[in-house]
Amino acid sequence: MNELQKAICRDGELLPGGVIRVERFLNHRVDTALARQIGQDLADAFRDAQIDCILTVEASGIIFAMTTAMAMGDIPVVIAKKGNRRNLGDDMYTADVFSFTHQTTSTIHVGKRCLEEGQRVLIIDDFLANGEALKGLMSICHQAKCEAVGAGICIEKTFQPGGKLLREAGVQVVSLVKMDRKEDGTMCFVEE
Amino acid sequence: MNELQKAICRDGELLPGGVIRVERFLNHRVDTALARQIGQDLADAFRDAQIDCILTVEASGIIFAMTTAMAMGDIPVVIAKKGNRRNLGDDMYTADVFSFTHQTTSTIHVGKRCLEEGQRVLIIDDFLANGEALKGLMSICHQAKCEAVGAGICIEKTFQPGGKLLREAGVQVVSLVKMDRKEDGTMCFVEE
To answer: Is any Cβ of chain A less than 8 angstroms from the Cβ of B28?
Structure first.
């Protein structure tokens, strides 16, 4: 059992409807030692992948993008922004991201000057459920002529289709914790 | 000259209207080694202040909140959220933050379970201009019966009133870089 699994057992709350409450240690109040360990674990998983830079989307993804980048020897982090494009100019890559939670489509963007062509990119995010954010980030990689080498995730909900779709598309997805939902609606860890 | 000043000289762009473009190394594409050094510099500045936890507001503030917290020995980071309150319940501290850029008021919030009473809090953010975000974060500290011991900032625009107002209110504000605007509209570093 890794440190994130232990923290979920100790302090997480699994609610009906597939909601995993981890805001007291993961992404609202951050246990910094745990975030550092998550970064180390994700860096270890992609140790031989010759990653040039990390790509994430604001906001919570930044926590683990930073700790992973530091564990990989201070490689750069590129943060896709949501909404407001002021100060960036028109010179940017964009992707539409549908939110099942809010039933809305939003646009994420990365300034073209912030993501160089030809980079080997590792995508990092805290959650993987339907995979919409990751698909948007992969589209931005593609537009920038970068290679999305893989995706490093804190918590994957295997009862939602994102992880399966991405793996079928050939993406190396590493999730430190996988949660499944049983027929009675309760959740459980997926043991590999 | 500290590392952030050097980076601004090397890669920053100072535009008319008091706009400082630093997105290629500070808060859109992040130079991780620089972010680590900024965290160390802010941690050093508050070394004797007995800080219990860091408070910031999403999104860019998270970068430097994390590196400062790591430099302070992995103390916790609390991230005030904007907008959507789903998954948090009603049990939260809130503050209204006026944006001069967008001329709109938004609400930031912190779950009450994420900020314990009686903590000595260091507020971290990337920019200080009018100080509205910092005032909101200080209000949240006050509601939580915590002490806002100080504020650590990457770049302060001294030609806008936030820093002056906060210092007059007794807050210890440490800005790694202070930029002033001359009469001809160009910007320059403030030397201490």
So the answer is: yes
